[in-house]
Amino acid sequence: MTTHGERPAEPGEVCTCGRPAVKVFTGGPWGDTGYCGLPVGGQSGPCAFCGGPRHESERCPSYQVRPSAAEQTGGNPR
Description:
mainly beta; 3-stranded antiparallel β-sheet; disordered C terminus
């Protein structure tokens, strides 16, 4: 059984909008998910993870709470 909860974010963890996370929700249907503290992702424009349009009702399939070093330094192809 998966336990749902939350914990403080660790350095390098990001929100679903691409900003640094302040907390991480653990468990749940999508696994661990970062949160920056701003409602509805706090950002407009293309998706920070796939470069496509924003995912309004679901999180990007490319999202990772702890992106690879290449993605953090701009190496993510868009």
